[in-house]
User: Which sequence fits this backbone?
């Protein structure tokens, strides 16, 4: 009986794996030219959470609960003196499928202190009290539409000079 359960589990995984792989986005490339991508980014820049004052701009889509996004932000903040003088980072909050981060995204975007809230969640792993505003919903929708236009398929999705890195 135990052998049948193991066989059934293995068979289930073998049949399920192709479905999972096929459900992943097929088009894993930037959909627009760098120039057109920069135009799209300009249209949503008012919704960005910005750090740094450098002349080189980096636009990044992150999910607050994505471990890779958290590591990326921690790396930047660990070297913030150098990074913030050389670069201006624009962060756009976008939910990654399966992360269930829509509530924290609207909370961060509703905050009076967005920069502090984003850093608290992504670097310090703190919980925030839920908050929502009409402006945050508008921001979420605008960022989501822009991400679809340019083909955002991962987090962090880093754009330098309009090109995905």
Assistant:
């Amino acid at each position: 009986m135990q052998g049948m359960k193991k066989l059934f589990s293995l068979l289930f995984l073998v049949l399920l794996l192709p479905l999972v792989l096929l459900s992943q986005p097929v088009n894993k490339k930037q959909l627009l030219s760098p120039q057109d991508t920069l135009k799209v980014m300009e249209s949503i820049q008012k919704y960005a959470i910005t750090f740094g004052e450098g002349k080189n701009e980096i636009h990044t889509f992150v999910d607050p609960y994505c471990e890779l996004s958290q590591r990326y932000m921690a790396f930047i903040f660990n070297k913030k003196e150098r990074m913030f003088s050389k670069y201006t980072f624009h962060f756009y909050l976008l939910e990654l499928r399966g992360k269930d981060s829509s509530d924290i995204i609207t909370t961060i975007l509703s905050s009076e202190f967005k920069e502090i809230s984003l850093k608290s969640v992504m670097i310090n792993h703190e919980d925030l009290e839920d908050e929502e505003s009409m402006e945050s919903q508008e921001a979420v929708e605008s960022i989501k539409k822009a991400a679809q236009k340019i083909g955002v398929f991962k987090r962090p999705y880093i754009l330098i000079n309009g090109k995905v890195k």
